[in-house]
Amino acid sequence: MADAAGAAPRRKPVKITKDNVSDLMAQVDAFVLDCDGVIWTPLATGMYPKAEEALDRLRGAGKKVMFVSNNSFHPPQEKFKLMGYPVSEDEVVVPSTVIARYLKKRGFEGQALVLASETFKRTLQDQGIDVVQRTAEDHPEKIIEFLRLVGKDAGKVKAVIVDFDLYLTGLDLVKAANYLREDPECLFFACATECNIPVGGKICLGPGYWTEIVERASGRKAQWVGKPAPMMVTEFLKDAHQLDMARSIFVGDSLEQDMGIANNCGMKKLLVLTGMTAIEDLETCDPNLIPDYYIDSVADLGRLLPKA
């Protein structure tokens, strides 16, 4: 029934309880989880209490468990290793691994200008991608030298990739914009979408800003890889792992990114309330981002499942 203003009532998500958890499990073969705000806090050295037990119980129930994160700077597999929890490389999906796979599968030739962390660059190099390296001369003080460096690799760079880069310079951005302007065939990927990244009470400027600068300067639009864009799911989970989207559920704490990627890929949506979203936010969010289910924490999901 419509409300007084004539608008249809907003759909309400179902809270997972002991009475309906078995129904959920019967509908789902794969649980795809975000990490920050779901398994741990961004600066944590350990998982949320009982999160490990929840993952074990999902696996014990015969469910495939995968992890998808926008964080190629400090990839989840590194954190899992530090925390002593065994996760294989192919269970974790981040933008760097997806781009490396995408380029290799398509026989990419040429150099890649990668505005990202050294970890990100190594992932590409491990797949045979030629990554442009910064050198000691990349700090010119005269405009003529600056312009020489901008044109140094012109014609060789066939892909520009933007992610989180602690050492980003103005020269990097100018190079990226010019390579894209001058070569319509040059690929352009943007990874993490965040603009303001809260870290330890401070704000870091994220790659969302840098991508916007390069887009505006070059007149080109980036192909987004990070959530909520579907590429990490369609290029890796669906293609490489043959997941059935209709029988997969995305577990996350962000409406825009986590519920967004689930919506864009036809997955079920499960919101946890340990991260950036409060239950009250569902009253005003985009109706397409309203989750199918919600639960206070991943630990609560584990407590509702029987021991393996």
UniProtKB/TrEMBL annotation:
Q: Which GO terms describe its molecular function?
A: metal ion binding; phosphatase activity
Q: Which keywords annotate this record?
A: Hydrolase, Magnesium, Metal-binding
Q: Specify which residues bind substrate according to the UniProt entry for this protein.
A: S69, N70, N71, K227
Taken from the UniProt entry, a GO cellular component term is: cytoplasm
Which residues are the active-site ones?
A: D34 (nucleophile), D36 (proton donor)
**Cofactor binding mode and count:** Divalent metal ions. Mg(2+) is the most effective.
Binding sites annotated in the UniProt record for Mg(2+) = D34, D36, D253
Q: Which cofactor does it need?
A: Mg(2+)
Q: What SUPFAM superfamilies does the entry give?
A: HAD-like
Instruction: Extract the PANTHER family matched here.
Output: 4-NITROPHENYLPHOSPHATASE-RELATED, RE04130P-RELATED
Similarity comment: family membership:
Belongs to the HAD-like hydrolase superfamily.
**Name of the protein in its database record:** Pyridoxal phosphate phosphatase-like
Task: Tell me the organism.
Answer: Thrips palmi
